[in-house]
Amino acid sequence: MSPETVQNFIALGLGFAIAGMLSTGYQMLVARPASFHALLTGNAAAYAHVPFLVFAAPFIIVRNTVRRERFENNNPIGVALATMIAGFWSLMSGTTVIVMLRALGLV
Q1: Could you list the residue ranges that cross the membrane (predicted)?
Q2: What is the pLDDT of residues 68-89, one digit of tens each?
Q3: Most exposed among 7, 55, 75, 85, judged by the fewest C-beta atoms under 10 Å?
């Protein structure tokens, strides 16, 4: 396995871990699960949620997919597409976290 592949797996896992940590912390603080509904308000507070949602989105996407699949019989193509979107998003956010840690000299 090449070093680039290992780095991508680490970034993928780190992206999902950060997303889960942020979403769980948000739910602990405000007593409701994180969602994309904050963007629908249209006021200035909605823009404050954008940095949070950029990193928490993979967890929210997977959670919503699992919930929807539990209550409805979705098609497997929709589940696969949501999984691929969440995985790619997690890979990109994990790569961003690694780049930030390198810039700070922590990695």
Answers
A1: 6-26, 38-61, 81-104
A2: 877 777 678 888 999 999 999 9
A3: 75
For 34-49, what is each residue's pLDDT tens digit? 888 878 877 777 888 8
pTM: 0.85
Integer Cα distance of 48 and 76 in angstroms = 34
Tokens 């405000």 label which residue? 30
Closest CA to 94 of 77, 107, 76: 107
Element (H, E) at 24: helix 3-30
